[in-house]
Amino acid sequence: MRYWLVMPAAGSGERFGAARPKQYAPLEGRTVIEWALAPFLADARCAGIVVAVAPEDTAWSEVAARLDRADGSGQSTAPRRVIRAVGGAQRSLSVRSALAALAASAPAAADWVLVHDAARPCLDARDLERLLAQVTTQELGGVLAIPAADTLKRAQPADGGSARAQIGQTVERAALWRALTPQMFRYGRLCAALDAAHAGGRFPTDESQALEWQGEHPLLVAGMPGNLKVTTPDDLLLAAAVLRARQGRNAQDGLMRIGSGIDVHAFGPGDFVMLAGVRIPHSHGVLAHSDGDVVLHALCDALLGAAGLGDIGQHFSDADPRWRGAASARFVTDVRAMLDERGLAVANADITVLAQAPKVGPHRDSMRRQIAQLLAIPAARVNIKATTTEGLGFLGRIEGIAAQAVVLLTEA
User: Which helix (DSSP H) or strand (DSSP E) does residue 402 occupy?
Assistant: First the structure.
């Protein structure tokens, strides 16, 4: 799948009480908005990003320059993937402006768009995966949200009291949730819902409300409390604590898992081979139950091994007719879902193709991009090598092809 990201960032943050808007406040070596963008810049499924900033905003150019230098993978992707749009006086106007700017990239009406707050720097990768997995199973869309945990009160001014003197009445909380971001909807339906709201002089406080005004019922996807919104300077302290705890968790011993995998297939009739999901012309095909992609088969074994989940034969048996002629990309997608369920993420993958022919070099970049997309990691974290056996053995006699994969997993 792929999706587009829209980030409204035109607010002045009056409650934050600082010279600069809260999205540009420093936080653990970055600005708040850089932390908010980071999960999407690192996700190969994110096709493009639009950030809507105020017309007089001068701070965004500094952030854009840093994104230009590196996006966390060591490669510059910001010029290709981040577009600046002019925001409006209301959040929904900024979102609509960003969606209009996105039109230049020609998203289809049915494409998914995520809207994420610039002041939410602590989105956990597991929340993003949960949202994508659950929302894409239905047509409308949905939002990350958290069930209300505290006792809730509806306030009204006390008789004769000042504006600060309030009396409260307890509200039943069983059916109440706090809406978070990202919120995820189809491009065409979100544009239409916002247009209808604005035409009626209404400005929704989030995207789901605009859909609700049209009689729709967006899905609520349970998120984590750490996905907080920075509103006051005290929230920065909480956000810093969440980020430090997460970094500390990722640095703990025992959270890195290494796996290796090997696959071999004999050549047979045909005029192409599949390597890393890329169709490569060749004088032979391969003999296999599925599409015989040795690279992706080795990769699956490495991923399963690192997670302690057995091997590819246990999960995708060649005795199962469901996998006859199947694209091996499906295997990688299913294995990644198993990793997601266990809170494991791929840090990097190193793959070696062993063959006299076909030549891998001309297809190396396409193979890296395809694997990166399947694993939802930057292409910089995927390495493809090729070697021959100097004419020795069945590989040297061009009777078959082999691949070896090594991966590193960490807790997501």
Answer: strand 400-411
Given a cut of 90, is residue 281 above it in pLDDT? yes
Share of the chain above pLDDT 70, in %: 91
For residue 102, give every residue at least 6 positions away whose Cβ sits within 8 Å of its Cβ, in sequence order, or none: 4, 6, 48, 50, 83, 113, 187
Task: Calculate the CA 372 to chain-centre distance.
Answer: 12
Residue limits of CATH 3.30.1330.50 in the chain: 257-411
Q: How far is CA 91 from CA 68, 141, 272, in A?
A: 26, 19, 52
According to CATH, the topology of domain 3-149+170-251 is Spore Coat Polysaccharide Biosynthesis Protein SpsA; Chain A (3.90.550)
Centroid of chain to Cα 208: 20
Q: What residues does 157 pair with on adjacent strands?
A: 166
Strand locations in 150-256 (E): 152-157, 166-171, 177-186, 219-222
93 vs 89: CA distance, rounded Å: 7
* Confidence band, pLDDT 50/70/90 cuts, at residue 55: very high
Residue pair 278/316 in contact by the 8 Å Cβ criterion: no
Q: Residue 279: enclosing H or E segment and its boundaries?
A: strand 278-281
pLDDT exceeding 90 applies to what percent of the chain?
A: 69
Which CATH number is associated with domain 257-411? 3.30.1330.50
Locate the DSSP E strands across 13-124: 26-27, 30-31, 46-53, 82-86, 112-115
How far, in Å, CA of 339 to CA of 304, rounded? 8
C-alpha 241 chain-centroid distance = 23
pLDDT for residue 74? 40
The two tokens of residue 276 are 């890393």
